[in-house]
Fold Sperm-associated antigen 7 homolog.
Amino acid sequence: MAELDLLGSILRAMEPPPARGRREARRAREQTAQLKKLQEEDKRQKVEFRKQMEKEVSGFIQDSSQTKKKFQPMNKVERSILHDVVEVAGLTSFSFGEDEDSRYVMIFKKEFAPSDEELETYRRGEEWDPQQAQEKRRLKELAEKQAEEEALRGPAVVSPNTDYKDKYSHLIGKVAAKDAAHTMEANKAYGCVPVANKRDTRSIEEAMNDIRAKKRLRQTEEETPAPPAKSS
């Protein structure tokens, strides 16, 4: 009897789990199957999207009138697929847009790759206008050239409309006369003679005549006897 009770205990321990455990296991299997189905659907959509991008890029390459192409905003995964398609096709691509919802892709043919100036225009959210850009470059070069010329000329000299000497001539004349009078008084007081007064303005001939006249006068005085002294 004891052996039967032991056998019964073993058999009960080997019984399947209760119904609750079976429901949880079934739910887990259903979730796994659903996740797998979603993954397959996502993979299928990516394949379809890639095929669509390959078709559009191929049409862009065959159209000789197109040098660039702008696509509608895409999510990060779609942009990644498009960049890969463009790279395989031998083209150039860039993403633009401030936020994730508005970011888009532009593709360019290699021979029409955008310049840094053009890329900067797209990054600012503006349309690229080659003629307008050329005009901006011309104005910029002109401004730089004018700045260089001004730097070479140096600071500008300001010329007044009237000469201050003419405007204040009456005052300058009075000051000059006063200074001249003051100089003359100083010369008299200290026995100074201005250099201008010391300068001999005679010609050489006039100076020689004066010297000869003085010499004759001195000889005449030496030859003339002195008058006799009067007796007292």
The CA atoms of residues 217 and 223 lie 10 Å apart. The longest strand covers residues 92-96.
